[in-house]
Write a structure and sequence with these properties.
Layout lengths: L13 H6 L3 E8 L4 H13 L2 E7 L8 H7 L2 H4 L2 E4 L2 H10 L3 E5 L6 E2 L11 E6 L15 E4 L11 H18 L1
Parallel strand pairs: 1-2, 1-6, 2-3, 4-6, 4-7, 5-7
Helix pairs in contact: 2-3, 2-6
């Protein structure tokens, strides 16, 4: 066994990436405070070829040095857009045929392992603020809430970890299964 060199990884350019067919997944960041978290989600969206990343509310936007430190160039490959109001965006995405889900713990959330993303044409996933979660105005707007099962004492994950877990599950159902 040996680690692969950069050349052996066969990386593509941002231009080649943009030209590729994308996963029918839109990721929405709702008022994320940490620019490191924003950069990390850019990288995850790049890794799994998400169609688009929306930055909403107080979420910082590129160009930004703090975002770039964790994005490592993904701000150049991932298609992104700023939308001030997350509820207006959710309604717009629904009108475009997306099934819109928030990642949140609510009384009728669906456990991630019980989601059937493979039956959905287009998916939008909203992750919320590190302290307050998603905007409460989204509750009646979204098609549902996804909850990640947790077995410890905290029942809370960093927003980038939560986003990564859900993005992987969507990618797995669309690209692998």
């Amino acid at each position: 066994m040996k680690k692969l060199s950069m050349e052996e990884l066969n990386r593509i350019t941002p231009e080649q990436f943009k030209a590729q067919e994308k996963l029918p997944l839109v990721v929405v960041l709702d008022s994320i405070r940490s620019m490191s978290n924003v950069g990390s989600v850019f990288r995850t969206c790049d890794a799994f070829k998400a169609e688009k990343l929306y930055l909403c509310g107080i979420t910082a936007c590129p160009p930004n040095r703090e975002i770039s430190k964790t994005a490592l160039g993904a701000t150049e490959s991932v298609i992104w857009e700023y939308q001030e109001d997350v509820v207006e965006l959710a309604l717009k995405l629904k009108s475009e045929g997306y099934k819109v889900f928030m990642v949140e713990q609510v009384d009728d959330s669906v456990m991630l392992q019980d989601m059937h993303f493979s039956t959905m044409d287009k998916v939008a996933v909203i992750v919320g603020n590190e302290v307050f979660g998603v905007d409460e105005r989204l509750l009646p707007v979204c098609d549902g809430a996804i909850e990640i099962p947790q077995f410890g004492t905290k029942h809370s994950l960093n927003v980038t970890i939560a986003a990564g877990i859900v993005i992987w599950e969507v990618a797995k159902s669309k690209l692998i299964e």
